Amino acid sequence: MNQDNKKKKRIRLIRNIVVLFLSLVFVIFGSGLVYADMLLSQIHYNGLSSLAPPSGSISLPSGGEGTSSTDEITGDPNLLGGLYHDDAITNILLLGVDDYQDNDIGRSDSMMMVSVDTRHKKLKLTSFMRDLYVAIPYHGSNKLNAAYPLGYQQGGAGAGGQLAVSTIEANFGVDIDRFVLIDNSAFDQIIDNLGGVEITLTAAEARLINQNSGDPSRNLTEGTFNLSGKQAHYYSRIRAIGDDFERTQRQRNVLTSLVNKFKTSNIGTINKALYDCLGLVQTNMTKDEVFYLAANALTYMNYPMEEHRVPEDDEYYATRVDVGSVLVPYREMCSESLIDFIFEDDRPEMTTD
Questions:
Q1: Model-level pTM greater than 0.85?
Q2: Do 50 and 36 sit in the same domain of this protein?
Q3: Which terminal residue of the chain, N or C, has fewer Cβ atoms less than 10 Å from its own Cβ?
Q4: Residue-wise pLDDT tens digits, 193-208
Q5: CB 211 within 8 A of CB 272
Q6: At 111, phi and psi to the nearest 5?
Q7: One domain for residues 8 and 59
């Protein structure tokens, strides 16, 4: 009888421990969701407007519990509104705006598309040259970086971002799902909060950073260094060396290093970077879309990274027009190489039915 009582007590004890453990897990998980929601609430969300709306949308999982980014994805790429589209690939345009002066809208000085490719398990970076001479919907021809301020004048930052998206879509035929606008001041803070980014410098780059970045430690030389926010910011904007093609390569170098830094940072460091900087970000993604991408960020950041540039070396000619020196793209060539880079062998065939 005593043995039965002892056995029952042990069972009750084990059961209570399990219940307590599960309760703690749910409390922690619930608190984590509340905190994540608080963080994401800092982002400025720009709803889609009638001005140059993006034609695509992020495909979120619809299978209920248990659905994740690692589930098998079915279906093939297709044409959506005449644009190349694949539900397994999310294209997000990052816009860095050079709004350095007070009351200045600025132009999209940096334009880079991040493609989260869950079909081929890759993270792809595409830089668009700011001096590309393109057709801007409803605004004639101009440099690509003029699309943002032209849209801004009509409806604010959200409209500026959407017009930049629509301009790239109209000229190069790839569906862009969403955009993210990064405030100029966010750049330094993100990098500093993560403890800097590792970049390999030439002697000339090191000298210019020492002279012009505003960082008091002027100790850079040729080689690989951990750059501060100010140093990395100036590095990504260098114009005195080479041309704008090299400049976009530097920007991709910084973003690649930033992704690698996120992968190796502890949760406290990442949390501080997000807490301090999310308020400086604007996007037309919904909070649910951002949460989904954030929840799968570790998976995506461990994908191999590939890079592309529009235009590539043989896909343009340089000239001067009324808006200054420009790069006139051979649009069909640019579109073909961009589509091949994003969709690889799974690209749909354009039909003329």
A1: no
A2: no
A3: C
A4: 888 899 999 999 999 9
A5: no
A6: -135, 110
A7: no
- How many structural domains are present in the chain? 2
Host domain of residue 139: 46-183+290-346
Tokens of 114: 């991040």
- Are 53 and 86 in the same domain? yes
Examine residue 76 and state whether it is found in any structural domain, yes or no.
Answer: yes
Residues contacting 54, CB < 8 A, separation 6+: 48, 162, 165, 166, 169, 175, 176, 177, 178, 179, 284
Q: What is the pLDDT of residue 93?
A: 94
CA distances from 342 to 19, 22, 126, 210 (A): 48, 43, 9, 37
Residue with tokens 């869950």: 118
Q: What's the rounded Cα separation, in Å, for the pair 161 and 230?
A: 25
Residue 52 has pLDDT above 60, yes or no: no
User: What CA–CA distance (Å, rounded) separates 303 from 90?
Assistant: 14
Whether 261 contacts 197, CB under 8 Å: yes
Same-domain check for residues 18 and 150: no
Classify residue 254: in a domain, yes or no.
Answer: no
The answer to whether residue 217 is domain-embedded is no
Q: Torsion angle, CA of 276/278/280/286, rounded to 10 degrees? A: -170
Nearest by Cα to 108 from 94, 118, 116, 97 = 97
Q: Is residue 123 part of a domain?
A: yes
Please tell me the chain's helix, strand, coil percentages from 3-state DSSP, rounded to the nearest 5: 45, 25, 30
Both tokens of residue 14? Answer: 């084990």
CATH of the domain at 88: 3.40.630.190
